[in-house]
Amino acid sequence: MLLSILATLVALSVLILIHELGHFFAAKSVDIAAPTFSLGLGPRVAGFKWGETDFVISAIPLGGYVKMAGMEDDEAMEVLEGGEKAPPVDPARTFDAKPIWARTWVISAGVIMNLVFALVANIVLAAGQGEPYIGTRQVAPMHELGGSAAQLRQIPVGAEIVSVGGQPVAHWDAMQRALADAPAGAVAVGVAGQAPVTLTLPERGRSRDTLQQALRFFSPPVVGGVLPDRSAAKAGLRPNDRIVALNGQPVTAWHEAVEQFRNSPGKPVKVDVQRGGERVSLTLTPAAEEEKVNGQKRMVGKIGAVELPLIHHRKLGFGAAIGHGWNETVGMVELLLTTLRDLVTGALSPRNLGGLLSIGEASGQSAEQGGWSFLYFLALLSVNLAVLNLLPIPILDGGHLMFLLVEAVRGRPLSVEARIRLSHVGLIIVVGLMLWANGNDVVRYVERFLSR
């Protein structure tokens, strides 16, 4: 708990500081007065004056801001900012007195800084830790799926893929890249110990993505870790235990164990494991949790255990690390945009939104796994902060950019009164989203507690 709290405070403080420094230095670069720079919201707790700017730490460690002279529509934020009025400044140094390009630069700079931080973090990860890859060629196809994925029934569980389209593949990631890059149509997949299998690849898009996702990598049924206070830990399951049978039925792969537990919500399961040189029998009851499966809600069982990681790292030169860091950052942005799209279209339930408790749990878990893992989490959270700030909601950076776009199109800005009213609406939307996300966290923790 202490680690989660400290990791959350570090993560939020660093990323908010980077974001607001972007706004601050951009404002200074175009001579906009910035009387206040705050890390946190609400009443001032401590700080110092440097030049015309009061650098402060505020009471609520859940945000930050740079108060710039002349942003009258920011009255909606006065309560969160401690309610202090900015001192009078030269009218030529106010935000609204600057040309549109300068204001656009200032508003965009926070998002740019967060994306730059994520890029630098991903480059450092690639250069220091190396490129991650799944170090196996064994696969566990999902034989129960239909459509284009049905043809994977030709490949047995545990088979080792050695080539795609006649080109050797060294590991699972290389195999997936080869399938993604191959042209639509027939492609020969080499399988160790048997004749090649011919797959018919659909055009690139959702169908091919589904096919590739159905070709999972094979993971042995070995426990990599258990979460505290969950079913696995309470039953006595330990890291490195090899699950050999569930309810007397042999288990040969991790996904088989997962399916058995998922299909047994709230029901006792007899688990036989190989621990060292002896066989140990345990009984655990998977916690029942609601999940949306193929558009339908149903209860599934979860035990709070993770598989033995098969991740390896390949050392990269500096040039390759830059390319990998760039691709990783773009992938993070695409993932978040896809998630937002699915939320809007209803493909993803709003119940999946998480708030401060979810961030805290993820922060603590990543910090516990080590510095590289925590740096990756910071990069991912920084991308989230950047993209979500670009949503066209007044009081967010995207809302201010929307005001500037309207001004550019109509030749004059919206009135101060209109911007203030819209900012009030934006504040209600943002607070509502925060309450919803944090409410989801509370519901999840209550359900988890009741299922123990």
How is this structure best described in words?
With 452 residues, the protein is an alpha+beta fold. The protein folds into three domains: 2-125 and 381-450, no CATH class; 134-217, PDZ domain (Pdz3 Domain), CATH 2.30.42.10; 223-308, Pdz3 Domain, CATH 2.30.42. The protein is built from eleven helices and 18 strands. The chain has helices spanning 2-29, 100-128, 172-181, 206-214, 231-235, 254-262, 318-345, 356-368, 371-389, 397-410, 416-450; strands at 36-50, 53-67, 131-134, 139-141, 161-164, 167-168, 185-191, 197-201, 215-217, 223-226, 242-246, 249-250, 269-275, 278-284, 287-293, 296-302, 305-307, 311-314. The chain has a four-stranded antiparallel β-sheet, with helices on one face. Strands 12-11-13-14 form a four-stranded antiparallel β-sheet. A hairpin with a 2-residue loop joins strand 13 and strand 14. Helix 1 crosses helix 2 (100-128) and helix 7 packs across helix 9 (371-389). It is globular. The mean pLDDT is 84.
Topology diagram in text:
Elements: H1 2-29, E1 36-50, E2 53-67, H2 100-128, E3 131-134, E4 139-141, E5 161-164, E6 167-168, H3 172-181, E7 185-191, E8 197-201, H4 206-214, E9 215-217, E10 223-226, H5 231-235, E11 242-246, E12 249-250, H6 254-262, E13 269-275, E14 278-284, E15 287-293, E16 296-302, E17 305-307, E18 311-314, H7 318-345, H8 356-368, H9 371-389, H10 397-410, H11 416-450
Antiparallel strand pairs: 1-2, 3-18, 4-9, 5-6, 5-7, 7-8, 10-17, 11-12, 11-13, 13-14, 15-16
Helix pairs in contact: 1-2, 1-8, 1-9, 2-7, 2-9, 2-10, 7-9, 8-9
